[in-house]
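Look over both lines:
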Amino acid sequence: MEFKDYQRESRKVAKYVDAGKNFIYPTLGLTGEAGEVADVVKKIMRDDGMKVSPEKKEELKKELGDVLWYVAQVATEFDLDLEDVAQTNLAKLFSRLERGVLGGSGNDR
């Protein structure tokens, strides 16, 4: 599946208040779902001795899917093409790699 297809299809289930004019809801949802991803990883560390069971992997996949859905909705609310977002991110990261500045902080390094 391509990002454009995912973004279009995911929009069909975007039934939150004022969808199309509400970037706050999906942004808050994104932070909540990112926390759920972190919680799954924390429990793998705490409860499972860093061993990833098939069940935990499936749980993580579902949570990452929720993160992806919210990323797509935030992008759509700002009229951004998810494909372009992904390409821009890779271009930024490879530029940093070529310049030897992958580590560090700041977006404009």
Remarks:
- The helical segments are 3-11, 24-48, 54-77, 82-99.
- Residues 30 and 70 are 5 Å apart (CA to CA).
- The chain is about 70% helix and 0% strand.
